Amino acid sequence: MKSLFICCALLLSAPLFADSVKQQYPWHRGLNYQRIVDRIPAPSGYRRIRVPDKSFSAWLRGLPVLPGRPKVRLYNGKLKGNQSAHHVVVSIDVGRRDLQQCADAVMRLRAEYLFANACRDNIVFKYTSGDVATWRAWQRGVRPRIRGNKVSWVRRARSDGGYQNFRRYLDNIFTYAGSYSLSRELLKVRNPATVQIGDVFIHGGFPGHAVIVVDVAENQKGRRIFLLAQSFMPAQQIHVLRNPTSSLTPWYSAKQHGPLVTPEWLFHYRELKRFARISICP
Length: 282
Fold this sequence. Notes:
There is one protein chain. 34% of the residues are buried. This protein has seven helices and 17 strands. Strands 2, 4, 9, 10, 11, 12, 13, 14 and 17 form a nine-stranded antiparallel β-sheet that branches. The chain has a two-stranded antiparallel ribbon with strand order 1-3. It has a two-stranded antiparallel ribbon with strand order 5-6. It is globular, with a radius of gyration of 19 Å. Mean pLDDT is 91; it is low at 1-17. The longest helix has 23 residues, at 2-24. The protein starts with a helix and ends in an 8-residue tail after the last strand. With 282 residues, the chain is α+β, with helices and mostly antiparallel strands.
């Protein structure tokens, strides 16, 4: 009788869980749902840091991942050339154009969190030109008119707060923003050894690169380790990176300074930055 009750309770709660997943990760269509936190255990001697519910940190470590270790695919469905860089693949679409590359993937994740958690007025990014592009204006039908290096804004579409229009807004951001503009928006982290979930290692340039911290663990001495996720060029599925230099892989050790070697880019710890905007939505 008891086991029957538990079974029925699980069946009744399954639709509620699925609805919750769809609300937080609206692009996700799979029924086989595993999170980063489910798939990647903390190494012996480390425990994941506590984070507030509904925070960007909790949302990132809850990102859905694909079963097993599938190959990373590009926006056009072809296989990425380097299949040795990733540990798991995040279950999120790439889009059909070569847009969602490195910094774009970081902006996508940040914007998706804000969109899903009633913080939509905080979805604001800058073009490489420095012009501000807000979801609030795009939602009202305002669109950029770009002539050379000059950007003006004209209302030429109907108001639409839906998810598909939000994705069109993001494609526009991916077209006119990148690692250079995002790097100028983020705040420098004074002590990279205190890395937090949601921080970004970013080298702004042409080309540049950006990877986002999607989880953090800590040992009894307060030393932190972290997981990194990236997209790359061409646009490709977001994936959690392996660590090519440590047996802790896919975890990376937090340090105050020095080089940070990732499978496809050499960063420096001093390139760690942080979003300045709201980190917990109501």
